[in-house]
Amino acid sequence: MTTAVLGTDLAGALRQRFPDVVIDADDIAVWVTPESVSDVCAYLKADPDHQYDLLNLLSAVDYVEYFEVVYHMTSISRNASAVVKTRSYGRNEPTVASVSGVWRGAHLHEREAYDLMGVSFFGHPDLRRILLWEGFEGHPLRRDYLEPPLPYKWPHGG
Questions:
Q1: Which residue blocks in 2-124 are alpha helix, DSSP H?
Q2: Distance of alpha carbon 154 from its chain centroid, rounded?
Q3: 4-24 pLDDT tens trace
Q4: Domains of the chain (ranges plus CATH)?
Q5: Number of CB atoms found within 10 A of residue 120's CB
Q6: Residue 31 carries which DSSP code?
Q7: What are phi and psi of 77, to 5 degrees?
Q8: Could you give the 3-state DSSP secondary structure of residue 61?
Q9: Are the C-beta atoms of 10 and 82 separated by less than 8 Å?
Q10: pLDDT tens digits for 42-96?
Q11: pTM of whole model > 0.85?
Q12: Cα separations (Å) of 26 from 6, 30, 45, 69, 94?
């Protein structure tokens, strides 16, 4: 069974290598600054104590106030998994560093997040739509795609 590495443990290791990039951590994940995510992931892949050689999933989540990009990675040799997250604030042009140079599979994951959520990945070699046609207006997985304006007030304070 794959061992899930605690975000707090991963944060401790990252703080030693990158003192200013860790924003927060909990049992599930570690949050890093959006401009540092590529360097952090390259380190986690190359470092012999981590060896996260497989990016299982890259996804984006719209929390209205910010977009969160989530990286699920696995170390096959260590049989361990970890989650790294980053946040990009602002609805106009949310931007995060590309990890397509770290894992080849991230190339398509980032294009999907760009296409459906509008998150740009600086340093990506070919950032264009992958599921929808060029000229399609908007990003259909955003919370404000069909019913602006934001923020939405949930009924009953939930």
A1: 7-17, 37-46, 106-117
A2: 26
A3: 999 999 999 999 999 999 999
A4: 3-97 (3.30.460.80)
A5: 15
A6: E
A7: -70, -30
A8: strand
A9: yes
A10: 999 999 999 999 999 999 999 989 999 999 999 999 999 999 999 999 888 999 9
A11: yes
A12: 7, 7, 21, 16, 24
